TrEMBL record:
The lineage of its organism: Bacteria, Bacillati, Actinomycetota, Actinomycetes, Propionibacteriales. This is NAD(P)/FAD-dependent oxidoreductase. It comes from Nocardioides lentus.
Length: 490
């Protein structure tokens, strides 16, 4: 039997949970959240690799409406963030509308009925609106390396960690040196007998200014809510005032570059290794990483940084282009995610039956205000195109979008609109403006390849301006930019 809900939310990470809470607060109680995993948390549920932690301070990387006086450190480890999301979900009183272990298989817009017909792994639904919080960093990207599936030992992606595999004393290889890998490598170096780290491009890594909060601070967080707000505000403006400014002006990045080079010099004395880890592109072009432990781990005797190209994987090891085979017991691939080619986009079919995946494959990822797409009525995507950040908290962006979406839904209810979608012109203007602002930034002119760029070299993932500008742009639903249909028949 098909069940109807007013709003179907996909995903129970930071985005889906915020959508559920704000829909509920706005009086929209007829919604369901479907989540293919077994719990809330999204990326924080999935990324359980050793060393997983946030590289944005927790006071900022949390909901503004749910401060957490219990953060133990400035940069929280994954279990604390996951526990925080679980607590917020529990206390929100919305969990009875979450369905875990339910995957979206296909969603199709039905023009005559003006609703979404949604097929899931646990039955069929119809919904007036479809809100996707499926996340841009949720589908692991496996490397296309010859022979990798024939490796005889354990192989796993960083976001699918197999804690059942004992790595003590083992010969382990890690492919990749991105944000995930640089957190994993120091932890693996503590237990592995030998560790090979395969680097294709050196990352810029600055020190991690982390510390445990003192007992006095923690007491104050509990009893002086203003102190937490002060920390949050200071962290926010510290990042907002400096980091976006240097995306177009290389000279402003000099202090960050100096910090990163000092980080290398402090930990690594071998000139050959220093040269290998020193990037040859502008800092900020790829995500700037933070770690005090990565370079010391690479400098250890039982760790080898391999910079020769990987030619293939055999059942027993990894062979580089020079013909050397390094034998291993376990292979960890920390090779990132499907960001500009998200598989879920191929399951969402708008007007005329064309999928979002097809639409974006033709023209590149694009959405009005990163949220709504022409041809996909009543569809809202949290963390859509050009909403990602390289420098600040995604939770801030998520809250901005959720406010916009709930305002859109309130407008639909108030004005009895059956359906709305951004006009093609409004979407194009917004996308053109974002892309113009990308020109000359460190992402397009910084001399690196990264997951920020799509196959045409366009940055369709990041927001190129201050986050408060995005907050302002999404502060109120702007119906004038939309094609609307209504009023509803009911
Ligand atoms: O993935 P990545 P990630 N052969 O795509 C290499 C967030 N995050 O999981 O640079 C060899 O950044 C690839 O090499 P290259 C954060 O937004 C946040 O590390 O393309 N190597 C690169 O080194 C982050 O940006 C936290 O040349 C191959 C690596 O694999 C995003 O997640 C923590 C290869 C992939 O790096 C993704 O980070 C962790 C191949 N075939 C992650 N294919 C926080 O703390 C790829 N590589 C909040």
């Amino acid at each position: 039997m098909t069940q109807h809900v007013d709003h179907l939310v996909v995903g129970a990470g930071f985005a889906g949970l915020a959508a559920a809470i704000k829909l509920d607060e706005g009086g929209e109680h007829d919604f369901l959240v479907i989540e293919k995993g077994g719990d809330v948390g999204g990326t924080w549920r999935d990324n359980t690799y050793p060393g997983a932690a946030c590289d944005v301070p927790s006071q900022l990387y949390s909901y503004s409406f749910a401060p957490n006086p219990d953060w133990s450190m400035s940069f929280s480890p994954q279990p604390e963030i996951q526990a925080y999301i679980q607590r917020v979900a529990r206390e929100s009183g919305t969990l009875d509308r979450f369905r875990f272990g339910v995957e979206l298989l296909e969603a199709t817009w039905r023009e005559a009925e003006q609703h979404w017909a949604v097929r899931t792994s646990d039955g069929d639904y119809t919904a007036t609106t479809l809100v996707s919080g499926a996340g841009g960093l949720s589908e692991p990207q496996l490397p296309d390396i010859e022979g990798i599936e024939e490796f005889a030992g354990a192989t796993f992606h960083s976001a699918r960690w197999d804690s059942g595999v004992d790595l003590t004393g083992k010969r382990v290889a890690v492919i990749g040196t991105g944000a995930s890998a640089i957190q994993i490598v120091p932890e693996l170096a503590k237990v592995a007998g030998h560790l090979d780290v395969y680097q294709r491009t050196a990352p810029w890594v600055i020190p991690r200014n982390d510390r445990t909060y003192t007992a006095v601070e923690r007491f104050a967080f509990h009893h002086l809510p203003g102190l937490q707000r002060l920390y949050r505000t200071a962290i926010y403006w510290g990042r907002e005032c400096y980091v976006p400014a240097f995306t177009k002006e290389p000279r402003l990045a000099a202090p960050a570059k100096a910090l990163a080079l000092a980080n290398i010099r402090r930990a690594i004395s071998d000139p050959e290794l220093r040269a290998k880890v020193t990037p040859d592109y502008r800092i900020g072009c790829k995500r700037i990483l933070i770690s005090n432990a990565y370079y010391p781990a690479l400098a250890a005797d039982h760790v080898e940084l391999v910079t020769d190209r990987i030619a293939r994987v055999t059942p027993t090891g990894v062979v580089t282009a020079d013909g050397t085979e390094r034998e291993i017991d376990v292979l960890v691939v920390a090779t990132g995610f499907h960001t500009t080619d998200q598989p879920i986009a191929h399951r969402i079919h708008g007007r005329g039956g064309r999928s979002l995946g097809e639409t974006w494959a033709r023209q590149g990822m694009s959405a009005y205000k990163g949220t709504t797409v022409h041809g996909f009525p009543n569809y809202f995507q949290i963390v859509g195109p050009n909403v990602g950040l390289g420098h600040s908290s995604m939770v801030f962006m998520i809250e901005s979008q959720v406010a916009y979406v709930t305002d859109a839904i309130a407008t639909m209810r108030r004005d009895r609109y059956a359906a709305l979608e951004p006009s093609a012109a409004a979407q194009q203007r917004w996308t053109d403006d974002v892309q113009e602002r990308m020109e000359g930034t460190v992402w397009s002119a910084g001399g690196c390849a990264s997951w920020y760029l799509d196959e045409h070299g366009n940055n369709t993932t990041l927001w190129p301006r201050a986050t408060f500008t995005f907050r302002r742009q999404t502060a109120a639903f702007d119906v004038a930019a939309y094609d609307v249909q209504g009023p509803r028949a009911d």
